Amino acid sequence: METKTLSKAAPIIELPKPLEQLSEGEVERKACIGRLMTYTLNNLTSQFVEKDFQWLLPVALSQSTDPLWPDPGASIEKRIEVDIYGKTVRTTASMIIHKLIASSLAYPKLFILSPNIRIEKAERAKTGKHIYEFTQLDFEARNASTKGVMTLVEEVICNLLTSMKQDMKEELSLLCRCDTLELPKRPFKVYDRQELEVDYGADWEEGIAQETSDPVWVTNIPREFYDFEDFTTGKWDNYDLFMPQYGEVLSGAKREWEYEKILKKIERDNVDKYNYALVLKLAKEEKLKPTAGGGIGMERLVGWISGVEHVAETQPFPRAGNSAR
Ligand code: AMP
Ligand code: MG
Fold it and tell me: For residues 30 and 37, what is the distance between their CA atoms, to the nearest angstrom?
């Protein structure tokens, strides 16, 4: 089959202006997006609490943060390391390892509003989708299945949109999203990444985001050691959620828990074993449990809802470019 050509080349998106440079109208728009962020945080955290997920507070510095490697999607340029009492720790890139440990040992169902720092190549900010500080609503559940996580996410997102469309009409209408933000039909369609590569080539993420008019799942994406990989079929039991005309807002997976597999994958990926000694030890002692979960980028989700050009518009102090306040 021939690869489809995308309708247009990815545009370069201007970085948003800092707060103190906004006009009166722009401040009104900013405040409106802020109210949608408040609504979304309140709604999603309440839904997870109601479903018996424990709300954990985040860690900011740790030895075993996300290696973000190998991940064809990530282009990390700099990793921030500091010495604390003689131990080298890094700023949190994601709390994936902490989620696996916490869910296995003490909090079977958990979520965290986790601040992530990822300093990627500066050009990335021009996609309008990348900021160097963002927050994930990161959740994990012991013994959960991929299907279970998909159903949960579809339910919480549809509940959020249903109540938001009732309660936040003024905000959605000011952002011209009253009519264009539709309530998706469940279950969302599921695509295999390999099928999408046949259709769109390497640019499948952009391709599916442009083409779909509903949120869709994409499964089987090769990435970091902690996502479950079936060594016999070579398929990955993981998933990303893509929003129409926007792109990825969630990544998640069923996770690895068996020592031999984790060790093999860490070695295969050339990841520093020393940083993941605890998770390896727990896996060896069979204390690591099968879990599944995901992380919703809050700025991306609210960015999609609000119809912003640049995801940093959802931040009071945009974390893109070199104009940090
Ligand atoms: P990941 O596991 O790396 O895919 O991150 C989980 C979610 O966080 C993604 O699906 C996005 O919604 C969000 N995210 C990841 N990287 C960024 C970034 N550089 N800027 C904004 N949001 C991001
Ligand atoms: Mg991702």
Answer: 11
The answer as to whether 227 is a domain residue is: yes
CATH number at residue 125: 3.30.930.10
* Mean local confidence (pLDDT), 278-291: 98
Q: Nearest 5 degrees, angle CA 286-CA 282-CA 109?
A: 85
Ligand 1 pocket member 297 (CB < 6 A): yes
The helix (H) or strand (E) run that includes residue 35 is helix 24-50
Per-residue pLDDT tens over the stretch 152-193: 999 999 999 999 999 999 999 999 999 999 999 999 999 999
- What's the 248 CA to ligand 2 centre distance in angstroms? 7
Residue from 251, 314, 315 whose mutation best tests the ligand 1 pocket (most atoms within 8 A of CB): 251
Give CA–CA dist 280/110, Å, rounded: 21
Q: What share of the chain is helix, strand, coil (3-state, %, to 5)?
A: 40, 20, 40
Q: Is the pTM of this model over 0.85?
A: yes
What's the number of domains the chain is made of?
A: 1
Contact 39, 175 (CB under 8 A): no
In a domain, 323, yes or no: no
Angle (nearest 5°) at CA 72 between 246 and 113 = 60
In eight-state DSSP terms, residue 242 is E
Dump pLDDT digits (tens) for 236-279. Answer: 999 999 999 999 999 999 999 999 999 999 999 999 999 999 99
- Strand locations in 122-203 (E): 133-142, 189-192
Q: Is residue 9 a part of any domain in this protein?
A: no
Sheet with 238-243, edge to edge strand ranges: 54-56, 109-117, 133-142, 291-297, 247-254, 238-243, 216-219, 189-192
CB 212 within 8 A of CB 248: no
For 116, the token pair is 């992530």
**Residue whose CA is at the smallest distance from ligand 1 atom 23:** 297
Does residue 322 sit within a domain?
no
Q: Which atom of ligand 1 is nearest to the CA of 300?
A: 12
Domain that holds residue 223: 19-314
